[in-house]
Every structure is written in C-alpha cells, then in structure tokens.
Write a structure and sequence with these properties.
Blueprint (H helix, E strand, L loop, with lengths): L12 H28 L4 H16 L3 H23 L9 H7 L20 H8 L4 H26 L31 E3 L6 E3 H20 L19
Antiparallel strand pairs: 1-2
Helix pairs in contact: 1-2, 1-3, 1-6, 2-3, 5-6
Length: 242
C-alpha cells in the first residue's frame, strides 16, 4: 500500500539558504534544458537525458538524481503544453496566446517547485559541493549538514539503546593510517590519497573512513575503561586519650 503524507519543512535560516540555493540552481538548469529542447526539437526523456545529462552535471554542479529530475521536469512541462494546445486551451493556432506559448522555450521561475525522491536527499549532505553561494553564505552552509547528521544519529542511537561516540574528523583525509604521516600533499586529487612517506594509496574517502574508525576505537577504549577502585583508607590505630 502506498502512503502519501504531506509535511511542512521548518528549516533553520542556514538550512533554508542551502535549500533555496539548490532550488535556484535546479531551475536555472531546467530553463537551459528547455531552451536546448526547443532549439533541437528533442523533447522526450531518453533523448534529452542522453543529450544533456553530462552537460547539466558539469555546468550546474548537480549530482546524478537532481540532474535526472531536471530533465523529467522539462519533459513534463512540454508534454503539458502540448496537451493544452490539443485541447484548445491556448486558443486557435492563429491566436496571439497560442503563438506566444508555442514560439518560445518553456522557462522556470527561480523558486519553481522541484520534484525529488528519497535518492535526492543526498543534497543535504552534498549541497556544499553542488551549488555556488555568495562568500558570506559559505561558512554557514559548510557547518550545518554534518552537524545535523550527527544529531540525527545520536537521537536514533539513544532510541535503540546503541552507544554513540563522536570523534574529531580533522585531517582524517590527509593522514596515512599506516605510518601516521599527515600533510595536504598526501591528497594529489580530491578523490585520491597517496602517502608521501610510505606510499600507501587508495580512495581518499576510504582512507578518511579508516582514520575515523581508528580514532573511534581509541576513544571507545578510553571511555569504557573501568574506573580503578579507590584504595581503602587504613584504620587509625592507637589510644585516644579523653
């Protein structure tokens, strides 16, 4: 059974800024796709996706699922326009309204609604790398996704009785888990890690994950260490004069 639930988001100001920035990028991308579709006559989903998928990701910095949803939104918009024309809702083919609607590309308002599904929820984690923001917005945007994720994990852990331990992730993608050498040059590229001291190489995210795991193990041993029993105080011996 499919359950439909209507919810209202109550984001913080920082979250609202991130969501608005992502929405604007999606609608700029949709307007671009609609223009290309109009010029080329390619308005089916498979054709547009094959033609523009790579361009959307490279030009607008969108990840895979939002890029696919942008194409779908454009296809749906042109399909709705064609249906209106066939039903006579735009007037006769010679009317000004009809000619105006059919003689120019579909465009999207900056705040137009953007379809999404559960695969698009990664925006919350990746939005820092997917959109371009003003300089004064970058600091706040960089801080909220991982902080919110930590809060959710802690909450779920408490609900199920699972221990939750948060460790400092600083420099975990620059530190070699084999020899401990840490420097920026250990990451010659965003996705790759190669230790300049011992030569260990691998995906940067995997290396960072190993370092986080090792820090968590060390911290867990410390916080679960038994508290030493307090030595008993020796009893006082001797005579007490009144």
């Amino acid at each position: 059974m499919k359950l439909v639930v209507q919810v209202k988001l109550l984001p913080t100001p920082e979250q609202a800024a991130a969501l608005e920035a992502t929405l604007r990028v999606c609608n700029r991308a949709a307007t671009h796709v609609a223009s290309v579709a109009f010029d080329t006559g390619v308005k089916d989903r498979n054709g547009l996706q094959k033609l523009l998928y790579t361009d959307i990701k490279a030009t607008f910095g969108l990840s895979a699922q939002p890029a696919v949803r942008v194409v779908k939104k454009v296809v749906d918009a042109y399909a709705a326009l064609a249906a209106q024309a066939r039903a006579g809702l735009l007037g006769k083919a010679t009317s000004k309204r009809y000619r105006r609607a059919m003689s120019s590309p579909v465009s999207f308002r900056p705040e137009a609604a953007q379809p999404f599904d559960d695969r698009c929820l990664s925006w919350q984690q990746d939005v820092r790398d997917r959109v371009r923001l003003r300089r004064d917005q970058r600091g706040t945007l960089s801080s909220w996704p991982f902080h919110q994720l930590g809060r959710h994990l802690a909450y779920k852990a408490r609900q199920t009785g699972v221990a939750f331990l948060e460790v400092d992730a600083a420099h975990t993608s620059q530190r070699c888990p084999r020899c401990g050498h840490t420097e920026k040059a250990n990451r010659p590229a965003r996705e790759h890690f190669r230790c300049r001291r011992c030569g260990l190489a691998g995906p940067a995210d995997v290396v960072a994950g190993v370092n986080v795991r090792d820090r968590a193990r060390s911290a867990w041993v410390f916080v679960t260490m038994p508290v030493p029993a307090t030595a008993a105080q020796p009893e006082a011996k001797g005579r007490c004069d009144p």
